[in-house]
Amino acid sequence: MNNVERISILEKSISIKTDGHNEQELAEYFKKILKDHNIESAEILFATGRSNLIVSMGHGDRILGLTGHMDTVNIGPLSDWKSDPLVLTDMDGKLFGRGTSDMKGGLVALIIALIEIKDEGIDLGGQIRLLATGGEEKGQLGSASLLGHQLISDLDALIVAEPSRLSNPKSGKSTQFAIFGQNGVLDFEIISKGKSAHSSMPELGINAIDNLQEYMNQQKNYFDHMVQINDSVLGKIIPVNSIISGGEQINSVPSYAKLTTKVRTTTMVNANRIISDLEDIISEMNKVADMNLELNVLRQLDPVVTSKDSSIIKLVSLYGPEFFKQKITLRTVAGTTDAATFISENDRMDIVQIGPGNDSSHMANEYIFKQDFIDYIEFIKKIIVSYLNDELVKDI
């Protein structure tokens, strides 16, 4: 496949709008082009018009997983874009469009790599399994729907093609990272229940906002302490109060208030520890008359950490410079990917996040460097074949 053909697949993918819906249309497009190259694939629906796509190739005991998501964030105001976000636009070596960086560029590169491996008749020496998911941007819905389908538990390693390049606006160059660790996630809400009364007679009511404020003071003190605990790999937790709401009308004592908080967790300070500690705080506060607080966990994902000595990390570090003309920098990130969902079914597999996307993700005028996209296709083909070749892996 030449570069014009490669980019045409990305062009078509960008034209299919998948901002929180319609992944099935993109999955069916991928399914067609794969079938044109004698590669079978299967869809797994998780909602109306929304699906995951599963591709399997090769035979053998060693199984390498590849993953990327088909959905994007919303386009946002069209006036912020220099070009149509649903039309792949080539300007100064950059390919603009919604999803180019996060992460249709990486996903399309994986699909092209599989097609070219098939067309070139390369003997894999093992199995590849591509998990193209939907719904990643809003709750990892697609990846969660794949649990229990015997698609994850037998993977030896997983490559996540999420964006992992950092652009440099001054030089026009970008740095290629390989990410071996991701913070976990804890989303929770604290609900304060009070009693409504007329604002002229507040003594007859119970002010849910005031009670929530008392709790927030204690939560702040708690997190001020916990952020001092440094995880040797993932660093410190990152707590953020994201939403606060309450009250019914200005002339009434509020009977309800709610705080929503997100915490990027670590292995040292994990979600279970935080939940237990906050429940203890709430239990003590609820001993006071008129205090009625409760904690609800909205989402919980464990941290993802892979040893730098793992085969997949070593391969990425070894072959990266050949394709990216730079040393691969290993690092961790606070953000999370579908890998955090997948490890609930397989915490033994080694995981690396490395993709051609960059820090323009989620922004207006999102782009991917054309050369980064092309180089990544060649790179991932090399990694696939090398990882599945036992002799090459043993020599690392």
TrEMBL record:
Keyword Cell membrane included in the entry's annotation: no
Cofactor field: Co(2+); Zn(2+)
Stretches assigned to the Peptidase M20 dimerisation domain: 181-287
Keyword terms: Amino-acid biosynthesis, Cobalt, Diaminopimelate biosynthesis, Hydrolase, Lysine biosynthesis, Metal-binding, Zinc
Pfam families documented for this protein: M20_dimer, Peptidase_M20
Any GO MF annotation of the entry: succinyl-diaminopimelate desuccinylase activity
Pathway assigned to this chain's UniProt record: Amino-acid biosynthesis; L-lysine biosynthesis via DAP pathway; LL-2,6-diaminopimelate from (S)-tetrahydrodipicolinate (succinylase route): step 3/3
Catalytic activity: N-succinyl-(2S,6S)-2,6-diaminopimelate + H2O = (2S,6S)-2,6-diaminopimelate + succinate
InterPro entries, A to Z: ArgE/DapE, ArgE/DapE_CS, Bact_exopeptidase_dim_dom, Peptidase_M20, Peptidase_M20_dimer, Peptidase_M20A
Primary enzyme class: hydrolase
Domain of life of the organism encoding this protein: Bacteria
UniProt entry tagged with the keyword Amino-acid biosynthesis: yes
EC number: 3.5.1.18
The family this protein is said to belong to: Belongs to the peptidase M20A family.
Protein name listed in UniProt: Probable succinyl-diaminopimelate desuccinylase
